[in-house]
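Final report, results section. Input specification for complex C-07:
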Amino acid sequence: MSAALVARELRMVRRSVANCFELEIPYLEMRSSEVLAVLGSNGAGKSTLLRAFAGLEEPTAGEIVRHGQGPVTMVFQRPIALAGSVLHNVRIALRAQGLPSPEIHRRSNEALEHFGIAKLAARPATALSGGELRRLALARAFALEPTVLLLDEPFDDLDAGAQETLSRDLRQAVAQTGVAVAVVTHDLRRAVLVSDRIAVLIDGGLRQVGERNAVLNHPANLEVARLVGMSNLIPATFDAAGLATVDSQHAIPTGQPGATGPGWLGIRPEHLKVDVGRGEGSTIGQGELIEFSSDGLLATLTIAWAGQTLRTHLVAGRGLARDLRTGDRVSLALRPEDVHVLRDLPQGEKEPRLPS
Amino acid sequence: MAELDGPTLLSITLRTLAICGSSLVMALGLGVPMGIWLGSRQFPGRRTLLGLVNSGMGAPPVVVGLLVAQLFYRSGPLGHLELWYSTQAMVTAQILIALPLVIALVVAAVASLDEDWALQVRALGIPPIWRQWLLLREIRLGLLAAVIAALGGILSEVGAVMQTGGNLEGETRVLTTAILMYTRMGLFESAYALAAVLLGLMLVLAGLLTWVQYGERK
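Structure output:
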């Protein structure tokens, strides 16, 4: 996959009366036929980065290099309808590019059909609902056949079904057109569903970028781990053989021999198993179920173990998830390869907070 | 002075339309770009400018007339142009009266757009000329309001046009100054005829614009 857009030594400083915000990106590239999810909490600089990529905001320093001939376009977090019909909204940018009429007709009709708003073509765009407006904004962007497409929180205003459709459409469009897509989102689930790679922004800094699974399973530090859903972060002491000791009594094999001393174990909830004797990893001891919640699809178990609060998931309404009650004792198991070792410490802390 | 006859009424009406039409076109030509600029830019002194514009909306036309008359008076700074008591001086006064109204209403229309509107249009790769056209299309209701307000201000104005035009027969006499003159002379029938034409013009033009505005909103 070739680079469609590259940012080097990018620095953006935004000053207002109340504060000063800085975004620093040493290197980040968007690749053709790939979706890059830019993940970060509110105010991390995600939208600023996207606007810089779109050429809407000038960097304070550094450069953004675009490769390829096609347009770079962006869909905003709050989609904006231009005065006129839905069809006018889709066609206006095509007309402005001077495309021949048959081409304008083909592209606009295809885009409207693709996003399921062909029936609304004659309706004033300002009369659309939030979800319809979102689809119009996407149709308008796709009709341009861009080489780089930037989507700012594209799943807002969409119900669950429409989110699924958009994720699928996005994947299809990427496969068919080779467009490089960046999706800014604070929704980890959506980021995981649509992305090939993930870039993590925290407080204006690019903390990690990499293949989706690498970022999810091997976050660079605790901040990234928390942001990418590695919610089980356990202070531990490591020995040279890669054995982690938690609470001075629980030994957990990490399969990662190396540096000794204090650190953190990072375990994704989906990797922590409730041991039912199937041999899924090594047993790490028993814990007490202190909270059980379910959204109908997924049950979340909160378990007290070795002075820590751990979380894991089960499929709702089946097997254990049907039988477990708060207060039950459960055996926990882990595979060494699912344990991520983090050596860094949270800001202001010199040592991991080991349970007394 | 005789009672008003048909040809005179027609001549005064056509002159009024010509003078007011010219003033309106020029006020819009100047005011719309200035309003767009002032409404879409942030710069030091912007608030002061907006304050001046808003104050201008409430400026007494007779004061504007006085300033323009002074400007074009024989011994005034532009006296050499010999435009005192001319239609050009009347148009100048009317432009100055209408300009703050146009600018203020266009600023309000631009400011009412979504803050990301301009960025979204740029993000679609639309060239600058097209962007300006789209902006005018977007603020068209505000523009219509500006046209109605400016037209009302210009058509109904009497003090400034009297000071700058002098109500010269066949040259600078317009509906409002003629009404004033016939009233002073006690020729009320003539004054009422002129008033009926003026009111009719206002109603037809404002009604037409309101109809267009209403049609856009539907």
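Chain B touches chain A at residues 114, 116-117, 119-127, 130, 134, 137-138, 140 (CB under 8 Å). Chain B has a mean pLDDT of 90. This concludes the modelling results for the funded period.
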